[in-house]
Amino acid sequence: MTLRTTALCIALGLAAATPMIGSARVFVDIDVAPPAPQVEVVPEARVGYVWAPGFWDWDGHRHVWVKGHYIREHHGHVWVADSWEQRNGRWHHEPGHWN
Q1: Pure H helices in the chain
Q2: Neighbouring C-beta atoms of residue 93, cutoff 10 Å
Q3: By 3-state DSSP, what share of the chain in percent is helix, strand and coil, each rounded to 5?
Q4: What's the pLDDT tens digit per position in 53-86?
Q5: Above 60 in pLDDT, residue 11?
Q6: DSSP string covering 24-38, please?
Q7: Among 12, 59, 72, 73, which residue's Cβ finds the most Cβ atoms within 10 Å?
């Protein structure tokens, strides 16, 4: 196989793997329950956007509040907000996503 053919095969392999890398999901399971949600004032609705409410995130050491914000609407889909649920004595963070 020539060097040029080898380089082309490597490039095609990397290009095929890139979408899988970008869509990887990370799940967090910890022993510390999140605090109660903070009260947020939801700004006036924006055409073409949906409100993603604030949530508690885990930074590896403690819970940190992520403020709510508007995200561009995906027609035909519903935004499912971030949530925490207890599983087998640990707390599992389910990231917000489109459904």
Answers
A1: 3-22
A2: 19
A3: 20, 35, 45
A4: 999 999 999 999 999 999 999 999 999 999 999 9
A5: no
A6: ----EEESSPPPPPP
A7: 73
C-beta separation of 96 from 81 below 8 A: yes
**How far from 70 is each of 14, 79, 81, 94, CA to CA, in Å?**
34, 11, 12, 19
15 vs 91: CA distance, rounded Å: 36
Polymer length in residues for the chain: 99
For 19-23, the CB contacts below 8 A with 24+ separation are none
Please answer whether residues 40 and 56 qualify as being in contact, where contact means their C-beta atoms are separated by less than 8 angstroms: no
Domain map (residue ranges) of the chain: 26-98
